[in-house]
Design brief:
The protein is α+β, with helices and mostly antiparallel strands. It is 54% helix and 19% strand. A hairpin with a 2-residue loop joins strand 2 (87-93) and strand 3.
Length: 108
């Protein structure tokens, strides 16, 4: 019994071209998502610095206009805000998650 371990894309140049296209499009899509999420993090931190607190809401009801990327990557957004030195808490109510960002206070 002979087992062939050849990569499908090497055997079929059309498949290789399709795979390259998919990787390129996926990379473009992910960089757009990263750009959007970094912008959200920047805005939240800016408002927290300015006003002491800031918040944004997200929900998984995409058919009602909620942003799917913000929902899917909400944990990464929270981690990024926390890495910048802010206090972050989340509140869930009726399926909507509110992410609250606060500046840290140095109490003695």
């Amino acid at each position: 019994m002979l087992i062939c371990l050849i990569n499908i894309s090497q055997a079929n140049p059309i498949r290789a071209e399709f795979d390259n296209y998919c990787v390129t499009e996926t990379t473009k899509r992910l960089s757009k998502i990263e750009e959007k999420l970094n912008q959200i993090v920047d805005i939240e931190c800016k408002y927290a610095d300015e006003y002491g607190t800031s918040h944004f809401d997200t929900c998984n009801a995409f058919n009602y206009g909620w942003d799917k990327d913000v929902w899917n990557y909400r944990h990464e957004v929270v981690d990024a805000i926390m890495r910048r030195g802010y206090d972050v808490s989340t509140i869930n109510s009726y399926g909507v998650t509110r992410v609250l960002t606060k500046t840290k206070l140095n109490l003695k």
